[in-house]
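Supplementary Methods. Inverse-folding protocol.

Structures were first reduced to a discrete structure-token string of length 145. This string, shown here, constituted the complete conditioning input.
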């Protein structure tokens, strides 16, 4: 079907998962390699949650798939998902040390996982600012009592 042009290989399912995303998600190194060999495959395509094939592979600890994807210049290893989580963040919080090492060794990885932002930083979110204000009020109340 793909060869005949009847199916767009970058078309996602109801979750937005492409064939490459599914292969990466399930750790199928050979399938990932085959799909990456096709010119029309977008290796950095985000699903409905903003996750990329690299994000899926990193989050599940599939070192072989991560290596294959990191070889591609058209894969952004810093691309966050809709919740601002990067592949390095997923690998770190899920304890996939091998994947963490691979990502940290990649010169293109610049996003520091779990970086704390100051509330007065222009990149801080409104929620962060509200949390700081709430904590200040609580501290003031406790100090008065």
């Amino acid at each position: 079907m793909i060869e005949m042009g009847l199916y767009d290989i970058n078309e996602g399912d109801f979750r937005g998962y492409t064939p490459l995303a599914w292969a990466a998600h399930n750790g199928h190194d050979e399938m990932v390699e085959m799909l990456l060999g096709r010119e029309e495959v977008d290796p950095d395509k985000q699903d409905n949650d903003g996750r990329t094939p690299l994000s899926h592979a990193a989050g599940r600890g599939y070192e072989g798939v991560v290596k294959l994807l990191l070889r591609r210049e058209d894969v952004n290893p810093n691309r966050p998902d809709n919740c601002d989580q990067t592949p390095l963040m997923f690998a770190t919080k899920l304890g996939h040390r091998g994947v963490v090492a691979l990502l940290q060794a990649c010169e293109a990885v610049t996003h520091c996982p779990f970086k704390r932002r100051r509330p007065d930083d222009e990149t801080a979110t409104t929620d962060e600012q509200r949390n700081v204000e709430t904590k200040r009020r609580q501290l003031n109340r406790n100090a008065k009592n």
